[in-house]
Amino acid sequence: MSGEARLMWDQGVTRYDFGPGHPMDPLRLDLTMRLVEAFGLDRHIEVVAAKAAGDSTLRLVHDADYLAAVRRASADPSDADQWMGLGTPDTPAFVDMHDVSALIAGQSVAGAEDIWRGTVRHAVNFAGGLHHAMPSAASGFCVYNDAAIAIARLLELGAERVAYVDLDVHHGDGVQTAFWDDPRVLTISVHEHPRFLFPGTGRPEETGGPGAPGGAVNLALPAGTSDAGWLRALHAVVPELLAEFHPQALVTQHGADTHFEDPLAHLTLSLDAQRAAAEACHDWAHEHAEGRWLALGGGGYAIVDVVPRIWTHLVAIAAHRPIEPEALTPEEWRSAVYVRTREGGPQRMTDGRRPSWRGWEAGYDPADEVDQAVLATRRAVFPAHGLLPEH
């Protein structure tokens, strides 16, 4: 093992831009990298720019006809095929869309290769996590599904078991679809219940295809779920499944849109709970996957107050240089935020909360909606893994 961690970064990823007014503002990526640098983390984690994914790599997940459609729309956005999800209000076509989407995918694939080959233990691509893209369609701001492509590359390299944990507020439907019937991949998605939110999937009874029973795990939480309930749910489902599955690599998606300030969803997590989840994922990688951890970004539309802070925490955790929650954000970064947005950036790397949660072993409350959701998931998938749904 030649190093602890790599940050996959190419400034070109900020060209992933759907235009003015679109929630997926690439400024969130730029401000995150600026905060990483302001904390000096780039001196403690190797920053590497990988090449764009080529067609043979993209086709590990995506159909050739879809790649051709993306290329056509990239050359002429007016030629976007809405049947393939391109040129829609969610995923508008833009010039060079193929190139920048392939560049983002290339960062995730290279990170996956690095952790599998032992070049580093951990790799982070916070520009990635575009988990809604389907094999033959764009969806939910996502053109190429870098998370699924990276997992497929791990399988191509010889991995026999890969676990994927998706912490975005939206269901990780594209990754689930890609590996629905593949017993080598365990997909776990912790999200807001689909009756409230896009994409309308991710119910606990979605448990995988006939060739992979229990291979898809969906924990659908009620709107309004906050720190204690969300962390209780996460820890009541994920660790037992990872321990039983014995993954050789862990891929995690850290969408920041679970935060109470996010404008597109209805969970109410603090930055501090999101940070606790990132720390848990890091610990699970070491405990269950020999330290092989690929951490990706995802959604997140509070682009000044939330996204840069949590993804900087993520980078710091991967670098084994965690930032104290009470740390002040560097003045140089706040000045850069003001120049770019005319807003004052957040002062500290915390929302001032100290998350704690009741462990599942402490008992189940049948009147609690979060506990109901947890039990529904455990009952749906735990038996397929030889686990008991209740204690």
From TrEMBL:
**Native species of this protein?**
Streptomyces hainanensis
Q: Which InterPro entries match?
A: AcuC (IPR003085), HDACs (IPR000286), His_deacetylse_dom (IPR023801), His_deacetylse_dom_sf (IPR037138), Ureohydrolase_dom_sf (IPR023696)
Which keywords label this protein?
Acetoin catabolism
> Which is a GO BP term held by this UniProt record?
epigenetic regulation of gene expression
Q: Where are the transmembrane segments?
A: none
Family membership: Belongs to the histone deacetylase family.
* UniProt keyword Lyase present: no
State the PANTHER family in the record: HISTONE DEACETYLASE HDAC1, HISTONE DEACETYLASE HDAC1-RELATED
Biological or metabolic pathway of the protein: Ketone degradation; acetoin degradation
Name of the featured protein: Acetoin utilization protein AcuC
MF (Gene Ontology): histone deacetylase activity
Question: Where in this chain does the record put each Histone deacetylase domain?
Answer: 22-316
Source species, domain of life? Bacteria
